[in-house]
Amino acid sequence: MKHTMQLLLAALVVSGGAASARTISVGPGQSIQAAVDAAAPGDTVAVRPGTYTEAGRACPTEPTHQCAVVITTDGVQLVGLSTPHDAVVLENPDGQDQGIAIAKVGDGGPACLTDASLRIRGNAVSGFTVNGFDGDGIFLFCADDWSVAGNAVHDNAEYGIFPSHCGPGRVTGNVATGSNDTGIYVGQSHDVRVDHNLATGNVSGFELENSSNSRVDHNESTGNTGGILTFTNIFLDVKQNANNRVDHNSVHDNNKPNSCLHPSDEVCAVPRGTGLLVLAADANLVDHNTVTGNDSFGIAVANFCVANNLSDADCANLDIEPNPDDDHVEQNTATGNGQNPDPSVASVFTVDLAWDGTGNGNCWKHNVAGTQFPADLPGCH
After folding, report:
1. 306 contact partners, CB below 8 Å, separation of at least 6
2. What is the chain's mean pLDDT, rounded?
3. Which of 359, 315, 319, 113 shows the shortest CA–CA distance to 234?
4. Can you give the pLDDT at residue 13?
5. Which domain holds residue 256?
6. Which residues in 196-209 are b (16+ Cβ under 10 Å) and which e?
7. DSSP secondary structure of 128-178
8. Residue 65's pLDDT is what?
9. Residues pairing with 373 in the sheet
10. Backbone angles phi, psi at 90, to 5 degrees
């Protein structure tokens, strides 16, 4: 990715450290965790190139699991001093669930949504390659004013980069590959920007789940099962996906067979060949994306119950409003999709632009598309 060094430097000034802030250096054979433990708010832990494994400790939100590096102090910046020829690599020695975890110690529940004392603020991770963890590469929980910039996350079993229950933050200039859930995922969060990243070889490239006032822009999603998903899921702490923008992304050739690990997970329902899916989301603006070569469909807007083939009785028992409402699909190029669809996708939906007819206020304007369903999509005024 371009501008990596600028991203690393920007990460050093997230939230502005105090005048007494220190830089703690770590080299091969030394412990990153020991340096993190010695850091005070505003300090930077700068890690020189090399391959690192850590003894591990209990994950802050899941104490029965082991994490390689745990950050629980506000304002600590973790910077890998990678160069184009020498990377800072954090690897799973065996049995560790998360590579880098940033959170206060707690139960991982919803309390931090209303209790500021349970939130962590002003942290950043940049310049790392995080490989092969049993769960997530980089995980943040209940974080505010944070940054994940210029990292690479490869072959982590579930998620590559995973902020959850977070406030304002940014995921920029990263590469995520080989996740059996999502490469770059933002869940139950608000005011997050995800930009200029590459996701390939995952089940979902990018997801915005039950999040609001966030933006996914100028990313490339290719070679995944599904390119970009913005949606409302059921039985979570936050109940709505609303007021997001998905724009200026390249979403192409996402035709990898679904490799989800747990059959009950929602991600297992993502059809091979999904381009950009807006599911039970409200007031999302999807604009200026290029969506091509996805075998099942290009850009689809759908109801949660319809997409999951739920009965009326089951749908009535959900804790979300399942319709997509007030979504705008504008000025996208969606061509060459739906040519070799997954058998689970209804034939009428194997088009460039698709809508299942549910919800209110959804509209389409100035898109370039070869095929669409229905034939007359409502226009935007």
Report:
1. 356, 358
2. 95
3. 319
4. 38
5. 4-16+23-373
6. bbbbbbbbbbbbbb
7. EEEE--SSEEEEEESEESEEEES-EEES-SSEEEEEES--SEEEES-EEE-
8. 98
9. 354
10. -110, 120
Q: Is residue 380 part of a domain?
A: no
Cβ atoms of 52 and 82 within 8 Å: the answer is no
46-100 confidence digits (pLDDT tens): 999 999 999 999 999 999 999 999 999 999 999 999 999 999 999 999 999 999 9
DSSP 3-state of 302: strand
Question: Which percentage of the chain shows pLDDT scores above 90?
Answer: 92
Phi, psi of 306 (to 5 degrees): -65, -45
DSSP 227-296: EEEEE--SSSSS---BS-EEES-EEE---PPP--S-TTSGGGGPPTTEEEEEES-BS-EEES-EEE--SS
Query: Residue 327 falls within a domain, yes or no?
Result: yes
Residue 104's CATH number? 2.160.20.10
CA distances (Å), origin 23, targets 10, 42, 268: 15, 9, 43
Average pLDDT over residues 193-206: 98
**Strand (E) or helix (H) holding 329:** strand 328-330
| Residue type at 272 in one-letter notation | R
Q: Which two tokens stand for residue 301?
A: 């807007």
* C-alpha–C-alpha distance, residues 137 and 67, integer Å: 10
Parallel, antiparallel or unpaired: strands 245-247 and 215-217: parallel
| Domain-embedded: residue 379 | no
| Average pLDDT over every residue of 210-219 | 98
pLDDT digits (tens, 9 = 90+) for 227-263: 999 999 999 999 999 999 999 999 999 999 999 998 8
List the end-to-end C-alpha distance of the chain, in Å, as a whole number.
38
Count of structural domains, the chain:
1
Q: Which amino acid is at 2?
A: K
Q: Is the dihedral of CA 258, 108, 115, 235 positive or negative?
A: positive
**Does the residue 319 lie in any domain?**
yes
C-alpha to C-alpha distance for 372 and 344, rounded to whole angstroms: 18
**Bridge partner list, 24:** 45
